[in-house]
């Protein structure tokens, strides 16, 4: 019931705001409004920022490009070039971010994020996309391969994210491609053909982790291509759930963070207070406990390195990994257009 209530609430309030501190508006994924993640901000200002929510990266970009006003947004890494090309963001002043140098350098290793004009992106969180399944109804050997998503035995029993990035990561992996930054036409077509097969087994596409968790908790589906969040939510409610990140063909990883939106209506200094709160070491445990994600700060990750949730959901695995690092905007648009056709049955 808790999951059902959460899903209904998120659906009802998609795009709406949770009003709190009116001097800072954060455009974010539902779930990240958990106060413990940015407790330092509340300690300083007495309240959470105002949050507005979106369901996927492309939706968020389109809304901001259409004039929606917020101070900061929380896109994943492959979106940053679109924000920059559209002139929607400005660099951060890292002299105002004391813990900036605690961010693992690998998360900033791209001229899209950091160049001679400044730092355009503050990576904060990362996770995995892999196979979530009910171990009481799905044998472990069935999830040893991503071909479970096209297995006729699971027709009407699977769920995929309504996210072009994540479904294409799955399709590329399932067809033998582990680097999406240089995809050939043949690789694209092979993945598209596989995704059309997978579509035949899909009971529902989930738009946020709470919805995915509810689909599994209700018994509507037994297998999902899932972020860490959905698994964390199900575990918290004592539903049987397992997370297979070492299928033969592999799994995917992603990371997300904050951009400084141009002409934000709020207090710029409070935007920095929010980022600084996110980068405190204490945010590592809060992020892991509430969302199941890892933190980009090496200091924050050091506080949770022995937590069982890190071993299950975030530790290295002996399997191929497709990293959802920035790829070309043209490739993303091609994937998005093809995904819409597939969902429509074409």
UniProtKB/TrEMBL annotation:
Gene3D superfamilies: Periplasmic binding protein-like II. Residues 330-346 have a biased composition (Basic and acidic residues). Residues 319-346 are annotated as: Disordered. The keyword Oxidoreductase does not apply. Residues 1-19 form the signal peptide. Pfam families: SBP_bac_6. Keywords: Signal. PANTHER family: SPERMIDINE/PUTRESCINE-BINDING PERIPLASMIC PROTEIN, SPERMIDINE_PUTRESCINE-BINDING PERIPLASMIC PROTEIN. This is Extracellular solute-binding protein. It comes from Paracoccus stylophorae.
